[in-house]
Amino acid sequence: MTSEYLKLNYAEAVYGKKNLLHSQLGLLTSVQNLEKYRKLREEELVLKIALRKKLEESKELLDAFERLLPKTKAEEELEAEERAMERSKELELRKVQLEAKKIMNQEEKEQVKQIQHKHKKHKHRQKSQLESEIDEIKKNLSTLR
Q1: Which of these, 133, 119, 126, lies nearest to 27 by C-alpha position?
Q2: CA-CA distance, 93 to 23, in Å (whole number)?
Q3: What is the DSSP string of the chain?
Q4: Full-model pTM
Q5: Taking the domains of the chain in order of start, what are their residue ranges?
Q6: Which of 16, 88, 115, 143 is the most interior residue, by most CB within 10 Å?
Q7: Rg of the chain, C-alpha, whole Å
Q8: From the CB of residue 137, how many other CB atoms can be counted at a distance below 10 Å?
Q9: What would the pLDDT profile of 12-37 be if each residue is shown by its tens digit?
Q10: How far apart are CA 101 and CA 95, in angstroms?
Q11: Rounded Cα–Cα distance for residues 70 and 95 (Å)
């Protein structure tokens, strides 16, 4: 394979360099935006987990409040019948839900810890690298103008 060379005049060379630097700047800016997006998604995950916990707590409080309210005899009779039929099903379901909840909470906590650790570790290094590259490209662009 042989190499071929083209002779470019000064204006063409400057034009080519400018376009190359603009392309590099665009790519690095895209990488920065991608990192910001990833960070926001991680924060969203943490917030969703927190919201889920708050909703569960609120549901438990509402259930406790509902149990404290007075009931009529008809409601009490209906509830007694329903409880008798569903008690065994509910117990089994609660056991399964509690086990699943424990597993999910442990997994979510581990995920959040891993994400936060990973993000902290790479955030500083990547930010400084990207910013230095962008500054260098901007400096090169300013010298070409």
Answers
A1: 133
A2: 58
A3: ---------HHHHHHHHHHHHHHHHHHHHHHHHHHHHHHHHHHHHHHHHHHHHHHHHHHHHHHHHHHHS---HHHHHHHHHHHHHHHHHHHHHHHHHHHHHHHHHHHHHHHHHHHHHHHHHHHHHHHHHHHHHHHHHHHHHHHH-
A4: 0.50
A5: 10-70+89-144
A6: 115
A7: 31
A8: 20
A9: 989 999 999 999 999 999 999 999 99
A10: 10
A11: 29
- How big is the chain, counted in residues? 145
Tokens 């581990």, residue? 110
Q: Which amino acid is at 141?
A: L
Tokens at 21, concatenated: 């630097």
Tokens of residue 20, six digits: 């190359």
